[in-house]
Amino acid sequence: REMKLVYLRLLASAALVGLFGGVAAAIVIAGPAQRDTPTDLTGIYLCSGTDPTGNKYEAAVEITAYGELWALRWVFKEGDDGHGFGILEGNVLSVIFKTTSIGWGAYRIEADGPARRLRGRWTSPGERTLFTETLTKTTAKSVDDLLLGLRRVGA
């Protein structure tokens, strides 16, 4: 059954609250904001994580500014892709996404500058646990460049 995002809000307490087609969801993502200066997350990231079946996965993620939001695009080695939007509050990027399912999560910015790393946790409606994902900024010029390297290594 398809679920549509009806409402999503990041509270000052750093709780992400949403309503998905009649199913309420909330997740506390972090403590109070720890940064006063804006952070530019723009770039191509190597994504590695674990899915609900326990399998490891890799993808290329492109993050771009979208007004006051951040747009994310995941492209997996196998060819699947996904899209999402995020809100940056302090050193936490809270996201809602649609890949093979819908979900939400949060990434804490652990390193800044050229070696930026975002370590995150995510889940989907119906799940009772959190899954992990890490985004590490690369020097790749495009998602395709990074994917070419990932596919070569995985071949």
Structure commentary:
The protein is mainly beta and 155 residues long. Helices cover 8% and strands 55% of the residues. The strands form two sheets. An eight-stranded antiparallel β-barrel has the order 4-5-6-7-8-9-10-11. 22% of the residues are buried.
Ordered list of secondary-structure elements with their pairings:
Blueprint: E1 5-10, E2 15-20, E3 23-28, E4 43-50, E5 56-66, E6 69-76, E7 81-89, E8 92-98, E9 102-111, E10 117-123, E11 131-137, H1 143-154
Antiparallel strand pairs: 1-2, 2-3, 4-5, 4-11, 5-6, 6-7, 7-8, 8-9, 9-10, 10-11
List keywords for this structure.
155 residues; mainly beta; eight-stranded antiparallel β-barrel; three-stranded antiparallel beta sheet; 1 helix; 55% strand; globular
Radius of gyration in whole Å, from Cα? 15 Å
Task: Characterize the largest beta sheet: strand count, sense, and whether it forms a barrel.
Answer: 8 strands, antiparallel, barrel
Helix-and-strand structural type: mainly beta
- Helix share bin: under 10%
> Quick one: overall form?
globular
Q: Can you tell me the residue ranges where pLDDT is under 50 for at least 5 consecutive residues?
A: 26-37
Strand residue percentage: over 45%
Helix and strand element order:
EEEEEEEEEEEH
- The total beta strand count reads 11
Strand order of the largest sheet: 4-5-6-7-8-9-10-11
Oligomer: single chain
Distance between the termini: 35 Å
Average pLDDT value?
79
Count, helices: 1
Condensed summary:
The chain is mainly β.
